[in-house]
Amino acid sequence: MQNRRLPPPEAGLYADLSIIVPVLNEAAEIALCLERLAPLRRCGVQLIVVDGGSSDGTLALCAGRVDGLIAAARGRASQQNAGARAASGAMLLFLHADTRLPSDAVAQMAASGGAWGRFDVVIEGASRLFPLIAALMNLRSRWSGIATGDQAIFVQRGLFEAVGGFPDQALMEDIALSARLRARARPACLRAKVTTSGRRWLRHGVLRTVLLMWRLRLLYWLGVPAERLAGLYR
Q1: Residue 109 belongs to a domain with what CATH number?
Q2: CA dihedral 210, 165, 77, 112 (to 10 degrees)
Q3: Which residue range is the domain that position 140 belongs to?
Q4: What is the pLDDT of residues 207-226, one digit of tens each?
Protein backbone atom coordinates (compact mmCIF):
# COMPACT_ATOMS: atom_id res chain seq x y z
CA MET A 1 0.00 0.00 0.00
CA GLN A 2 1.33 3.39 -0.96
CA ASN A 3 1.35 6.41 1.36
CA ARG A 4 -1.63 7.99 -0.37
CA ARG A 5 -4.53 9.88 1.13
CA LEU A 6 -7.39 7.52 1.92
CA PRO A 7 -11.08 8.37 1.65
CA PRO A 8 -12.66 9.70 4.85
CA PRO A 9 -14.06 7.05 7.20
CA GLU A 10 -17.78 6.40 6.81
CA ALA A 11 -19.83 5.05 9.72
CA GLY A 12 -16.75 3.94 11.58
CA LEU A 13 -15.43 2.01 8.58
CA TYR A 14 -11.81 2.31 9.68
CA ALA A 15 -12.30 2.48 13.44
CA ASP A 16 -14.19 -0.82 13.35
CA LEU A 17 -11.20 -2.67 11.91
CA SER A 18 -8.25 -4.24 13.75
CA ILE A 19 -5.33 -5.60 11.72
CA ILE A 20 -3.33 -8.33 13.44
CA VAL A 21 0.18 -9.13 12.20
CA PRO A 22 1.93 -12.21 13.66
CA VAL A 23 5.72 -11.97 13.46
CA LEU A 24 8.79 -14.07 14.17
CA ASN A 25 12.17 -12.67 13.15
CA GLU A 26 10.71 -10.37 10.49
CA ALA A 27 13.27 -7.57 10.71
CA ALA A 28 13.72 -7.69 6.94
CA GLU A 29 10.00 -7.12 6.27
CA ILE A 30 8.28 -5.48 9.22
CA ALA A 31 9.36 -1.85 8.75
CA LEU A 32 8.03 -1.75 5.17
CA CYS A 33 4.90 -3.63 6.23
CA LEU A 34 4.10 -1.06 8.93
CA GLU A 35 4.94 1.84 6.62
CA ARG A 36 2.36 0.56 4.14
CA LEU A 37 -0.23 0.24 6.89
CA ALA A 38 0.44 3.71 8.33
CA PRO A 39 -2.24 5.47 6.21
CA LEU A 40 -4.87 3.07 7.52
CA ARG A 41 -3.69 3.59 11.08
CA ARG A 42 -3.96 7.36 10.65
CA CYS A 43 -7.58 6.86 9.59
CA GLY A 44 -8.35 4.97 12.78
CA VAL A 45 -7.58 1.33 12.00
CA GLN A 46 -6.09 -0.43 15.00
CA LEU A 47 -2.76 -2.13 14.23
CA ILE A 48 -1.52 -4.92 16.49
CA VAL A 49 1.74 -6.85 16.09
CA VAL A 50 2.08 -10.14 17.95
CA ASP A 51 5.60 -11.43 18.43
CA GLY A 52 6.41 -15.10 18.85
CA GLY A 53 9.91 -14.64 20.29
CA SER A 54 11.93 -12.70 17.73
CA SER A 55 15.67 -12.33 18.27
CA ASP A 56 16.60 -10.19 15.24
CA GLY A 57 15.43 -6.71 16.26
CA THR A 58 11.90 -7.01 14.94
CA LEU A 59 10.41 -5.51 18.11
CA ALA A 60 12.58 -2.40 17.98
CA LEU A 61 11.43 -1.72 14.42
CA CYS A 62 7.78 -1.75 15.59
CA ALA A 63 8.22 0.93 18.24
CA GLY A 64 5.95 3.93 17.64
CA ARG A 65 4.38 2.35 14.56
CA VAL A 66 1.66 0.19 16.12
CA ASP A 67 -1.22 0.48 18.57
CA GLY A 68 -0.36 -2.74 20.33
CA LEU A 69 2.80 -4.81 20.53
CA ILE A 70 2.30 -8.03 22.46
CA ALA A 71 4.07 -11.33 22.98
CA ALA A 72 2.53 -14.78 22.66
CA ALA A 73 3.61 -18.39 22.45
CA ARG A 74 5.30 -19.10 19.13
CA GLY A 75 2.96 -20.23 16.39
CA ARG A 76 0.60 -18.35 14.11
CA ALA A 77 -2.49 -19.82 15.75
CA SER A 78 -1.59 -18.75 19.28
CA GLN A 79 -0.18 -15.40 18.13
CA GLN A 80 -3.23 -14.51 16.07
CA ASN A 81 -5.60 -15.58 18.84
CA ALA A 82 -3.68 -13.38 21.27
CA GLY A 83 -3.95 -10.48 18.84
CA ALA A 84 -7.69 -11.01 18.50
CA ARG A 85 -8.12 -10.93 22.27
CA ALA A 86 -6.24 -7.63 22.44
CA ALA A 87 -8.09 -6.09 19.50
CA SER A 88 -10.99 -3.67 19.87
CA GLY A 89 -12.35 -3.75 16.31
CA ALA A 90 -15.62 -5.35 15.30
CA MET A 91 -13.82 -6.72 12.22
CA LEU A 92 -10.50 -8.56 12.45
CA LEU A 93 -8.02 -8.89 9.59
CA PHE A 94 -5.07 -11.27 9.90
CA LEU A 95 -2.14 -10.14 7.77
CA HIS A 96 1.26 -11.73 7.21
CA ALA A 97 4.23 -9.38 7.47
CA ASP A 98 5.27 -10.09 3.87
CA THR A 99 1.81 -9.47 2.43
CA ARG A 100 0.46 -6.07 1.39
CA LEU A 101 -3.13 -5.02 1.01
CA PRO A 102 -4.64 -3.28 -2.01
CA SER A 103 -5.19 0.43 -1.50
CA ASP A 104 -8.97 0.04 -1.30
CA ALA A 105 -8.93 -3.01 0.97
CA VAL A 106 -11.21 -1.58 3.66
CA ALA A 107 -13.80 -0.36 1.16
CA GLN A 108 -13.73 -3.73 -0.60
CA MET A 109 -14.33 -5.56 2.69
CA ALA A 110 -17.22 -3.27 3.59
CA ALA A 111 -18.81 -3.54 0.14
CA SER A 112 -18.69 -7.34 0.24
CA GLY A 113 -21.08 -7.44 3.19
CA GLY A 114 -19.53 -10.75 4.21
CA ALA A 115 -19.23 -11.99 7.76
CA TRP A 116 -15.82 -13.30 6.74
CA GLY A 117 -13.72 -13.59 3.66
CA ARG A 118 -10.38 -13.23 1.95
CA PHE A 119 -8.69 -11.52 -1.00
CA ASP A 120 -7.32 -13.02 -4.17
CA VAL A 121 -3.53 -13.20 -4.09
CA VAL A 122 -0.61 -12.31 -6.33
CA ILE A 123 2.79 -13.84 -5.57
CA GLU A 124 5.74 -11.50 -5.96
CA GLY A 125 9.05 -12.93 -7.13
CA ALA A 126 11.22 -14.01 -10.03
CA SER A 127 9.63 -17.36 -10.84
CA ARG A 128 7.48 -17.57 -13.97
CA LEU A 129 5.41 -20.18 -12.14
CA PHE A 130 4.09 -17.69 -9.58
CA PRO A 131 1.17 -16.38 -11.70
CA LEU A 132 -0.02 -19.96 -12.26
CA ILE A 133 0.37 -20.89 -8.58
CA ALA A 134 -1.56 -17.80 -7.50
CA ALA A 135 -4.33 -18.41 -10.04
CA LEU A 136 -4.75 -21.99 -8.82
CA MET A 137 -4.78 -20.84 -5.18
CA ASN A 138 -7.51 -18.31 -5.93
CA LEU A 139 -9.56 -20.79 -7.97
CA ARG A 140 -9.27 -23.52 -5.34
CA SER A 141 -10.25 -21.10 -2.59
CA ARG A 142 -13.27 -19.81 -4.48
CA TRP A 143 -14.43 -23.35 -5.23
CA SER A 144 -13.81 -24.82 -1.78
CA GLY A 145 -14.63 -21.87 0.46
CA ILE A 146 -11.29 -22.40 2.21
CA ALA A 147 -8.83 -19.52 2.61
CA THR A 148 -5.12 -19.45 3.39
CA GLY A 149 -3.24 -16.96 5.52
CA ASP A 150 -1.54 -15.54 2.42
CA GLN A 151 -4.96 -14.28 1.29
CA ALA A 152 -5.45 -11.96 4.31
CA ILE A 153 -8.42 -13.54 6.08
CA PHE A 154 -10.91 -11.11 7.61
CA VAL A 155 -13.79 -12.02 9.93
CA GLN A 156 -16.34 -10.35 12.17
CA ARG A 157 -15.25 -10.59 15.79
CA GLY A 158 -18.50 -12.19 16.92
CA LEU A 159 -18.20 -14.97 14.36
CA PHE A 160 -14.52 -15.49 15.12
CA GLU A 161 -15.29 -15.91 18.81
CA ALA A 162 -18.32 -18.10 18.10
CA VAL A 163 -16.17 -20.68 16.29
CA GLY A 164 -13.44 -20.58 18.95
CA GLY A 165 -10.85 -18.68 16.92
CA PHE A 166 -7.87 -20.44 15.41
CA PRO A 167 -7.49 -24.02 16.64
CA ASP A 168 -4.43 -24.66 18.78
CA GLN A 169 -2.35 -26.51 16.22
CA ALA A 170 1.11 -26.12 14.73
CA LEU A 171 0.15 -26.02 11.05
CA MET A 172 -2.91 -25.63 8.83
CA GLU A 173 -4.53 -23.30 11.35
CA ASP A 174 -5.84 -21.15 8.51
CA ILE A 175 -7.42 -24.16 6.81
CA ALA A 176 -9.02 -25.31 10.05
CA LEU A 177 -10.39 -21.83 10.83
CA SER A 178 -11.81 -21.54 7.32
CA ALA A 179 -13.61 -24.87 7.72
CA ARG A 180 -15.14 -23.68 10.99
CA LEU A 181 -16.23 -20.39 9.47
CA ARG A 182 -17.53 -21.99 6.27
CA ALA A 183 -19.88 -24.12 8.37
CA ARG A 184 -21.53 -20.85 9.48
CA ALA A 185 -21.32 -18.75 6.31
CA ARG A 186 -19.80 -18.80 2.85
CA PRO A 187 -16.76 -16.52 2.54
CA ALA A 188 -16.62 -13.31 0.58
CA CYS A 189 -14.02 -14.17 -2.07
CA LEU A 190 -12.81 -10.73 -3.07
CA ARG A 191 -11.20 -10.37 -6.46
CA ALA A 192 -9.14 -7.42 -5.23
CA LYS A 193 -5.63 -8.75 -4.80
CA VAL A 194 -3.17 -8.81 -1.95
CA THR A 195 0.48 -9.20 -2.92
CA THR A 196 2.54 -11.71 -0.98
CA SER A 197 6.24 -12.50 -1.14
CA GLY A 198 7.40 -15.60 -2.98
CA ARG A 199 10.34 -15.99 -0.59
CA ARG A 200 8.96 -19.21 0.92
CA TRP A 201 8.81 -20.89 -2.50
CA LEU A 202 12.15 -19.50 -3.68
CA ARG A 203 14.02 -20.51 -0.52
CA HIS A 204 13.44 -24.23 -1.01
CA GLY A 205 12.60 -24.39 -4.70
CA VAL A 206 9.26 -23.52 -6.26
CA LEU A 207 8.21 -26.96 -7.49
CA ARG A 208 9.51 -28.67 -4.38
CA THR A 209 7.51 -26.32 -2.15
CA VAL A 210 4.33 -26.70 -4.21
CA LEU A 211 4.56 -30.50 -4.10
CA LEU A 212 5.25 -30.43 -0.37
CA MET A 213 2.23 -28.24 0.32
CA TRP A 214 -0.03 -30.46 -1.79
CA ARG A 215 1.23 -33.49 0.10
CA LEU A 216 0.68 -31.81 3.47
CA ARG A 217 -2.85 -30.74 2.55
CA LEU A 218 -3.73 -34.25 1.41
CA LEU A 219 -2.36 -35.78 4.60
CA TYR A 220 -4.22 -33.20 6.68
CA TRP A 221 -7.54 -34.01 5.02
CA LEU A 222 -6.79 -37.71 5.57
CA GLY A 223 -6.55 -37.01 9.28
CA VAL A 224 -2.80 -36.84 9.94
CA PRO A 225 -2.27 -34.64 13.06
CA ALA A 226 -1.09 -31.09 12.40
CA GLU A 227 1.84 -31.51 14.81
CA ARG A 228 3.21 -34.35 12.70
CA LEU A 229 2.73 -32.34 9.52
CA ALA A 230 4.58 -29.41 11.09
CA GLY A 231 7.62 -31.66 11.45
CA LEU A 232 7.45 -32.58 7.77
CA TYR A 233 7.06 -28.90 6.83
CA ARG A 234 10.13 -27.88 8.81
Answers
A1: 3.90.550.10
A2: 50
A3: 17-200
A4: 888 787 788 777 777 777 77
